[in-house]
Design brief:
single chain, mainly beta, seven-stranded mixed beta sheet, 11 strands
C-alpha cells in the first residue's frame, strides 16, 4: 500500500533553512512523478516543484532559487530544501505522487493520486 509521510517541518526563523523529507512506501520513484505543494489558510493548494521519474525538475516561478527539490530513489525519499525562510512561507507542506513517470500538465494538485498528511512550517515574522 502506497503511503507518503512528510517530516522536517516545524518552526523556522526568518532567513534560516529547513529541509523537508517525504518517505514513500511501496512506491518506485523511478516510475512516478513526485511533487511538493503548500497550502496557506483559506487558500487553494499550490505547487512548488515536481521531479519526474528520470529526475527532471520543474519549479514554480515564485521559487526564485530558494527551494530545491531532490530525491533518493534507493531510499524512496523526496526532499525539499527551503533557504532564506520568510514569514510568507508559513503553510502546510505536502508531498504527492502521480502514477505517471512524467510530470506533464504542470504542478497541479488535481493530477496527483497519492498524498501525505502534510507537515506544518511556521516562520516567525
Amino acid at each position: 500500500e502506497v503511503q507518503l509521510a512528510e517530516s522536517g517541518g516545524g518552526s523556522g526563523e526568518a532567513g534560516g533553512s529547513l529541509r523537508l523529507s517525504c518517505v514513500a512506501s511501496e512506491l518506485n520513484l523511478n516510475s512516478h512523478c513526485m511533487g511538493w505543494f503548500r497550502q496557506f489558510p483559506g487558500k487553494e493548494r499550490e505547487g512548488i516543484a515536481d521531479i519526474d521519474g528520470r529526475g527532471r525538475i520543474t519549479y514554480n516561478a515564485f521559487v526564485k532559487g530558494r527551494f530545491t527539490i531532490s530525491k533518493d530513489n534507493g531510499q524512496r525519499t523526496l526532499f525539499l530544501q527551503i533557504n532564506s525562510l520568510k514569514s510568507e512561507d508559513t503553510a502546510v507542506y505536502y508531498c504527492a505522487a502521480r502514477r505517471s513517470p512524467y510530470c506533464a500538465g504542470g504542478i497541479n494538485p488535481r493530477l496527483y493520486e497519492h498524498w501525505g498528511p502534510g507537515t506544518q512550517v511556521t516562520v516567525a515574522s
